[in-house]
Design goal:
Blueprint: H1 27-39, H2 78-103, H3 122-130, H4 144-147, H5 152-169, H6 174-185, H7 193-212, H8 218-234
Helix pairs in contact: 2-8, 3-5, 5-6, 5-7, 7-8
Subunit structure: Part of the core SMN complex.
Keywords: Cytoplasm, mRNA processing, mRNA splicing
Main location: cytoplasm
Length: 244
């Protein structure tokens, strides 16, 4: 330890009458000022803590819980979860391959001419995704041609709109479920924090609907279990998963 206290280089005698208010006139003069200031510092310093600053915060922070446990009769089996996870992964890889071919111009892709709502039009997107199109030449279904027109910021925003809609309605309508699944297929990884939070909200909402609904059709149970499974298993939010 003594070796660490040895000076790195000799600075000569230090004139204690140096006026520290004046700027140093050389590098050696600057070092002398540093040494003088160091000598004036106490060996031990005790902080004067203001106790008022240690009061409890006045802002309430909501701690979000995980998914609600499924009733025994509605919980998915391990085999069911694994099968859906494989199917989703295969479909996602297939779409990625198509996207790669389009980017490298190895595949000609004719874009669909359907007019999509503006990214900021939440009500427009809810209507677009939940209602049938009145024009026979157009479709509001989440076709691959429509999905490939959507950039990632739009995909993430529409996903957020639909999750909020599910939370408000307390159910997943068939067409909304189609769009949710399709958007997950074209959602890029890694997730940004906002999108990750959105997916976690989707899984929680599905678990609440599953636990509180008295009468659910088989396809409704399957959709709820599916989204919980994908969020938890594929997108690695394992704390929300149904037991394997």
């Amino acid at each position: 330890m003594d070796s660490l206290r040895e000076p790195a280089f000799y600075v000569g005698d230090i004139d204690e009458d140096i006026d520290l208010k004046q700027p140093p006139i050389s590098g050696r003069d600057y070092i002398k000022r540093v040494v003088m200031e160091a000598q004036q510092c106490a060996d031990v310093v005790v902080a004067d803590i203001n106790i008022k600053c240690l009061k409890k915060p006045t802002i309430d922070v909501e701690h979000l819980a995980g998914c609600v446990e499924a009733p025994p009769c509605l919980a998915p089996t391990t085999e069911w979860q694994e099968c859906r996870l494989v199917n989703f992964t295969d479909l996602k890889l297939y779409v990625i391959q198509i996207q790669d071919k389009i980017r490298t111009s190895k595949c000609k892709w004719k874009s669909q001419e359907t007019q999509l709502p503006n990214i900021d039009d939440q009500r427009g997107w809810i209507t677009y995704c939940s209602e049938e199109c009145s024009n026979e030449n157009e479709t509001h279904s989440p076709t691959l041609t429509t999905l490939l027109r959507m950039k990632q910021p739009l995909i993430e925003q529409v996903l957020e709109y639909l999750v909020e809609y599910v939370q408000t309605q307390g159910k997943i309508e068939y067409k909304i479920g189609q769009w949710l699944y399709a958007l997950l297929v074209v959602l890029d990884l890694p997730l940004n924090p906002d999108t990750c939070s959105c997916l976690r909200s989707l899984a929680r909402a599905c678990s609440v609907i599953r636990a509180n609904s008295k009468k659910l059709e088989e396809h409704e149970i399957g959709a709820l279990n599916l989204f919980i499974c994908l969020v938890a298993r594929y997108y690695r939010q394992v704390d929300l998963a149904d037991p394997y």
